[in-house]
Every structure is written in C-alpha cells, then in structure tokens.
Amino acid sequence: xxxxxxxxxxxLANEAKHxxxxxxxxxxxxxxxxxxxxxxxxxxxxxxxxxxEALPSYERRKPYAMTDRGRAExxxxxxxMRRLTKEGDRRLA
Length: 93
Prior knowledge:
Helices cover 66% and strands 6% of the residues. The chain has 93 residues and is mainly alpha-helical. A two-stranded antiparallel ribbon has the order 1-2. The longest helix has 25 residues, at 68-92. The chain contains 4 helices and 2 strands. The mean pLDDT is 95. The chain has one domain (2-92): Arc Repressor Mutant, subunit A (Orthogonal Bundle), CATH 1.10.10.
C-alpha cells in the first residue's frame, strides 16, 4: 500500500485534484488504475497523517492538496526510490 500513497502524493505534487482526476492522472503517468476503495483508503490515511488536506468542495467534488509535510515526504520517498534504483542497476551490471 505504500506505493499507492506515493502515487497519490505524486498526483498532487503539481496541483490540487479530486479523486476522479487523481485516478485518471495516476493511470496516465503510472499505467495503473486504482479502484475507488484503494484510492480513497490512501487519501484517508494521507489526510490523517497530515500529508494532504481537503479543500472546499465544488460541484459535488472534493479536491485535495498536498501539504508542506506531504511535499517533504514525497521528496524523501523519491530519493529512496532513486537510491534503490541505482543499487539495482549496479547489481544488474
């Protein structure tokens, strides 16, 4: 499930989005379609952890934005992914 949280954070990195927009965005950049239960479960956990926040609803849509804490978390996760990728490449060489 940790990778789902990273996908949600990546989706929100450049702009606020509602759930359906996140689903489409994640499908485009990660080639992975998240079901509503998976997506909204991750959103709830990220919101509870203070990594994202709900914005005022509009037209029955509830957008979410990344917090500063969420941005720092994503930066850390991406750096860890880069280190793992580098090590994996080194071992395969």
